[in-house]
Design brief:
Rossmann fold, 20 strands, six-stranded mixed beta sheet, 2 domains
């Protein structure tokens, strides 16, 4: 008889996954214990997603074993894995927008009345008990479609916790969470750990990995490189293991924008409250910081012609005032937006890479109403080569690409419109550190060519590394501004949390 106190909760032995022409996972061994937070890190294509899918029952391994408490298990599908105590929260949401929070969490497992109908009272009680236990601040009766992206993420986590899992897999769980929500999630994870749960934490955010995980396993090219205790590890240590070389953030210190030559854009932003002012200059990268709910995305969309009824933007440029009523009109004047949610608002999942890259530039590539496929192929090939796209063929569906390469296609699409202002909303969300460095260099190159680049990012470290100037939003207003080389993380956080009056003169100008 096996002494369960002497065996790990999860043991992976020689796990491999092969597809036609591709080996995605190569003989990975890993052990993880009850009451542990065990992180998985690696560049895109390292095998993290494949390993997660095998553990979640979404795919079957080509060889190797998965053992729970010393017993070999095999899964017929995700439900089989859930029955074995494994629950997964994916980065991409799987919620039904029209359902309530309570129905979403217990979908398919709702308590029923004697007549077979959903017992809404008992459902609400179960949901409130779950939310209170894990300190998830959600209204059980709220419709999912009305929630913020951050709250929808919490619904996904609540659903996973409702299965009474012993192993919880979290895929990029903080990608859409504010600092306060991240702290709340970490408190939840520590509580789960104290109750004996194993949390497998998959993230590109290496600092948070070091903050929350007990151990970390590094994958590279489908192979396990190392498992290390996080105590004493640094971000540079992890980057070196992930890439096989040093890969720290490069700084934008070598290029300073030419204030004498850069074209000036004087932006006035109006919402329900007082108007706010911001200046952009060609050749400059401006980082826009703020907490979730500060209004950064609303402003970015309004700037590029996709405004809500309560928001509007005027752009003063060369003696004219521009106001856009649609993204197409904005693009016609050189203002282009790259969305924060490439899956929902960016890519055309059913189309190939060429069609995705040329989608915004078709009028300039065709002959009147007729498309010119040969020209589309040539133009997209040229721009995507410049962006170092990694793809087997440009005719492949875009969904076959990694997140970083999908993002390069969206950037390529934007560049084909020849922007003068490029608005990038979370341009490196969900991409690995290697792709992040490449995207940063692309944006620096655009700035050097004279484009005004506005970058919205929830990663303060990214803004400090990439931007020339940082502007902070709080409650839908620009409240602080500072040169990036003089800024400190604490300054930005204070301004984002409580507001600052350092831009008051600009607001009242």
């Amino acid at each position: 008889m096996i002494d369960k106190t002497l065996v790990p909760l999860l043991a992976i032995k020689g796990l491999a996954k092969r597809y036609p022409g591709v080996v995605a996972l190569k003989g990975v061994d890993l052990t993880a214990n009850a009451g542990e937070v065990h992180a998985l890190v690696g560049a895109n294509g390292a095998g993290k997603s494949t390993l997660m899918n095998l553990l979640a029952g979404a795919q079957a391994p080509s060889e190797g074993e998965i053992c729970i408490e010393g017993q070999v298990v095999r899964f017929d599908g995700p439900a089989s894995a859930q029955d074995r105590g494994i629950a997964t929260v994916y980065q991409e949401f799987s919620l039904v927008p029209q359902l309530s929070v309570a129905r979403s969490i217990f979908l398919g497992r709702e308590p029923k009345s004697a007549f077979g109908f959903v017992d809404t009272r008992r459902l609400a009680e179960r949901t409130r008990a779950l939310l209170e236990r894990f300190n998830l601040k959600l209204d059980p009766d709220a419709e999912v479609a009305t929630l913020s992206v951050a709250d929808q993420q919490l619904v996904e986590i609540g659903r996973a916790l409702s299965f009474d899992a012993r192993i919880l897999i979290l895929d990029e769980p903080t990608a859409v969470l504010s600092f306060a929500e991240q702290d709340n999630l970490f408190a939840v994870i520590r509580q789960l750990k104290s109750e004996g749960m194993l949390v497998l934490y998959v993230s590109h955010h290496l600092r948070e990995v070091l903050a929350i995980a007990d151990r970390v396993t590094v994958l590279r090219d489908g192979e396990k490189i190392a498992t290390r205790d996080t105590a004493g590890l640094t971000v540079d240590d992890l980057v070196s293991l992930m890439l096989g070389r040093s890969g720290a953030y490069a700084k934008t210190t070598g290029h300073q924008p030419d204030s004498a030559d850069g074209s000036l854009f004087d932006i006035t932003y109006r919402t329900a409250g007082p108007e706010s002012r911001l200046a952009l200059r060609g050749g400059e990268i401006v980082g826009l910081a703020g907490l979730v709910g500060a209004g950064r995305t609303t402003f970015a969309r309004a700037l590029s012609g996709n405004a809500l009824s309560s928001a509007s933007v005027d752009i003063g440029h060369e003696g004219r005032t521009l106001h856009f009523s649609s993204p197409r009109e904005a693009m016609g004047h050189g203002v282009v937006y790259i969305t924060e949610d490439r899956k929902r608002d960016g890519i055309f999942a059913e189309l190939d890479i060429v069609a995705n890259a040329t989608a915004s530039a078709l009028p300039s590539l065709g002959l009147g109403p007729l498309r010119n496929s040969r020209k589309e192929q040539a133009v997209s090939s040229n721009i995507l080569q410049r962006l170092h796209l990694v793809a087997s063929s440009l005719s492949a569906p875009i969904v076959k690409l990694s997140g970083g390469n999908q993002q390069k296609v969206l950037i390529g699409r934007a560049l084909l419109t020849k922007p003068t202002i490029l608005v990038c909303d979370e341009p490196t969300r969900g991409v690995d550190i290697g792709a992040k460095a490449e995207i940063h260099e692309i944006l620096r190159g655009l700035a050097r060519s004279g484009v005004a680049v506005l970058v919205v990012s929830s990663e303060i470290e990214e803004l400090l590394a990439l931007a020339h100037r940082i502007v902070v939003m709080h409650e839908r207003r620009f409240v602080a501004e500072m040169p990036a080389h003089e800024a400190e993380e604490s300054q930005i956080l204070i301004a984002a949390s409580s507001g600052s009056k350092s831009m008051e003169k600009n607001d009242e100008a």
